[in-house]
What we know:
Elements: H1 3-6, H2 19-64, H3 68-88, E1 90-98, E2 104-112, H4 115-127, H5 129-149
Antiparallel strand pairs: 1-2
Helix pairs in contact: 2-3
Amino acid sequence: MKVSDVAKVPQGAHNIATVGSAQAGAGQGFAFSRHMMDFSQAQQQQYIEDLKDRIFRQGENIKRKADLGEFVQYRKLITELLEVVAGNAYSCTKTSAMDKRGRRNVFVLIKRINVQLDEMAQQVLQDQKENLRLLEMVDDIRGLLLDIML
Length: 150
């Protein structure tokens, strides 16, 4: 084969991917994965907003009718919000090192990776301070009743 023949594409080689087309396909794959990631983030943001709305509605239910069932549902919603925030707003890295005396030191670094999510959770908790205080009082009473029963 001559060097000049390399530039010519044989007739049966139309299905062979060239380097340029592989890069274009990779760009499309990257665009698709980026689109899916954006969709996932938008879906997660929608879920958090829905959870926030459910917490506020449940807080209003508690203000109208302080019932143990309402408190249990409210507690579940708050727990769910805190789990979402802890899982998505912070990252934790753990490192260990030896000091001069040969003792092991463990360092845990917690970083806020989603400041907006953390601020939103703080705002929800601040707005629901009254209801959370009522929930704390209900838990205290339940604990006292359990102590009496035992």
